[in-house]
Amino acid sequence: MTRPAPVLLAAALALLGTVAQAGPDNDHDPRHWLERMNAALNQMTYQGTFVYVLGDAIDTLRITHIADEHGVREHISSLTGPSREVVRDADGVRWVQSADQPVLADSAFKQSFFPAMPQDVDTLVDGNYALKLGGNSRVAGYDTRQLRVVPRDNYRYGYSLWLERHSGLLLKWELLDSDRKPLARLMFTDIRLGSEVDPVELKRADRLKEFATEESGLPAGQSGITSRPHWQPVRMPPGFELTAHRFHDGGPNGRMFEHLVYSDGLAAVSVYVETRPDDQDFEPTIERHGTTHAYSKPLGDVVVTVVGDVPALTVQTIGDSVGLVSR
Fold this sequence. Notes:
By secondary structure, the chain is mainly β. The protein folds into 2 domains: 9-215, outer membrane lipoprotein receptor (LolB), chain A (Clam); 219-324, MucB/RseB, C-terminal domain (Phosphorylase Kinase, domain 1), CATH 3.30.200.100. It is built from 5 helices and 21 strands. The chain has a 12-stranded mixed β-sheet with strand order 7-8-9-10-11-1-2-3-4-5-6-12. A 7-stranded mixed β-sheet has the order 13-15-16-17-20-19-18, covered by helices on one side. It is globular.
């Protein structure tokens, strides 16, 4: 993953445009800082290099993010480790891991690499998180203000965010576990803003169109609730609500598959229920992959799997409460 490059403060101030500025009346208001961060990530044009740290693994990546009359276009490429590229624009997301593999495409999946804070700050704060301002520090040559997103229980992770003081642009973040210890970190090491961005790097991403593409089929990319769930958790942690649902009955000889997505506005959890193979017999298990926990258990003739960037307590609580809905 990559790092953005520092620029002169005067140039940065001239390029911020519509991004909200902090004033003496709201400089100490954490809600205003979160609103400014959301605006900056969506409205600003920037480019640079950042490092992503997860456990003992450190990745360095390059990002070009352009916001203009054509919407938001973003290109991320890895500078270390296996070759990886991601392009996000109005057509969705395309990503490739190597030249001998097809480009995966999803027209509905539009998630950014950066944490997606809800636009409705009141819903976040009045629900399951608290916002708190921290101190000042320097990141990639810029003065920043720390903003902490603190969960009110142990069912979700928290964030520490470092925002550039004049624009609110996110320059560093840490994902925190239930003990408030960092699980993952991302930090820009250099960044350019506005007219200093070289659009050529984004144009290079056009070569991904030359690769063979294949729809990812990611359920996460499918939004909305089109039908009533057949299987559903009866006990959810506070604040999590059903936001997407997909069901496939499998036909006469096929395997039934159901996918539900629950979100509290920041964290999201996927619940999968599918026909259990006749020869599959196992004990309930919890696995951790980076910041993601997955819980699987057999339930009669189906297998229930719950996955999310949430603590193990959350996926197990949800998984153990899944049952067939009375119809």
